[in-house]
């Protein structure tokens, strides 16, 4: 029956039950329109609430809007299921049963007339259970989403913290390894300086104290050199599982290299300060002659005979030196150069 037909039928004043039919049709129409809209609104609210919760969780700031949307979604669900019941509760029973009138029937004896009693039906509360079940399911779903979100956020934070810790440990290990290699490089550089001081003729003749073990500073430097070499042989490898903030200078090998560097600086400063002060004047003249002969012995423009004679003469003069200590390494290098010149020719 359409709405107009129902409304026309209610115009008859002799039957008031048709008015309740019209109200029932109106309530059903309104419920049919509003219920889907409320359910759609509830779904949108829940989606927006969950999205906001995720956004707030990732940003670390919560303004409460996510929970507000979720509460509004639950209210919309409650309205979608509760509004039809509210509208239906005011509907009168369709086609009210008229009270039967007593009729007189011929009888031989007067019998009492009784009115049939209406049997009351129990109230159907199934809809209420369904509403509470849906609301409970939505609450449990929201709680489950919230718990999963919190757990996922904690897991992500734990993973990020683990990555940061691993990266920090890797950087610390690389820094320690580079610093350890720096001590090896510094040790090698000090050894090159000592070799240069023992094989360079200008250093030997004009800084004689730098190769003289009788000088206290030079002797201390040579001792520090031997100690650093021993530590390199025994503790030169980088120890495993060093803490990130370790001071490498407290370990044996770096400590020995530091002491070697300090001793070298002291010996070099002392040698430059002394210069040729302890060398007699006659021996200084001899040094100049030796230097001239060595230049001739290493001059490729000179003949082989001239170079050989200059080399032999310089070697004899070097052996006659008394105040200047010429290391054997320098003599061996000089002989090696002379042999190379002879072989080349």
From TrEMBL:
Origin: domain of life: Bacteria
Keywords carried by this UniProt record: Membrane, Transmembrane, Transmembrane helix
Region Disordered: start-end pairs: 94-119
TM regions (residue ranges): 33-54, 66-87, 125-152
Biased composition (Low complexity): 102-119
Protein name (database record): DUF4129 domain-containing protein
């Amino acid at each position: 029956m359409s709405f107009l037909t129902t409304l026309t039928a209610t115009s008859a004043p002799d039957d008031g039950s048709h008015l309740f039919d019209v109200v029932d049709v109106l309530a059903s129409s309104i419920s049919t329109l509003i219920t889907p809209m409320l359910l759609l609104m509830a779904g949108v609210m829940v989606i927006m609430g969950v999205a906001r919760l995720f956004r707030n969780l990732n940003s670390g700031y919560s303004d409460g809007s996510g929970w507000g949307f979720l509460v509004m979604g639950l209210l919309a669900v409650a309205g979608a299921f509760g509004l039809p019941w509210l509208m239906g509760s005011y509907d009168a029973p369709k086609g009210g049963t008229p009270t039967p009138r007593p009729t007189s029937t011929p009888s031989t004896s007067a019998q009492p007339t009784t009115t049939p009693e209406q049997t009351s039906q129990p109230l159907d509360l199934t809809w209420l259970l369904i509403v509470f079940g849906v609301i409970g399911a939505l609450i449990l779903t929201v709680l489950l989403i919230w718990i999963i979100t919190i757990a996922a956020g904690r897991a992500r934070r734990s993973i990020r913290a683990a990555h940061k810790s691993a990266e920090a440990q890797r950087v610390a290990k690389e820094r320690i390894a580079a610093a350890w290699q720096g001590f090896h490089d510094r040790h090698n550089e000090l050894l090159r300086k000592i070799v240069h001081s023992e094989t360079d003729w200008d250093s030997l003749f004009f800084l004689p104290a730098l190769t003289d073990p009788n000088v206290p500073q030079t002797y201390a430097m040579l001792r520090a050199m031997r100690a650093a070499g021993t530590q390199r042989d025994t503790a030169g490898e980088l120890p495993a599982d060093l803490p990130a903030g370790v001071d490498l200078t407290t370990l044996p090998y770096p400590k020995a290299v530091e002491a070697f560097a300090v001793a070298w600086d002291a010996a070099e400063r002392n040698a430059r300060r002394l210069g040729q002060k302890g060398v007699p004047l006659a021996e200084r003249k001899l040094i100049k002659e030796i230097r001239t002969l060595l230049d001739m012995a290493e001059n490729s423009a000179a003949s082989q005979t001239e170079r050989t004679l200059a080399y032999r003469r310089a070697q004899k003069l070097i052996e006659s030196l008394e105040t200047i200590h010429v290391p054997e390494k320098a003599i061996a290098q000089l002989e090696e150069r002379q042999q190379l010149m002879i072989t080349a020719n």
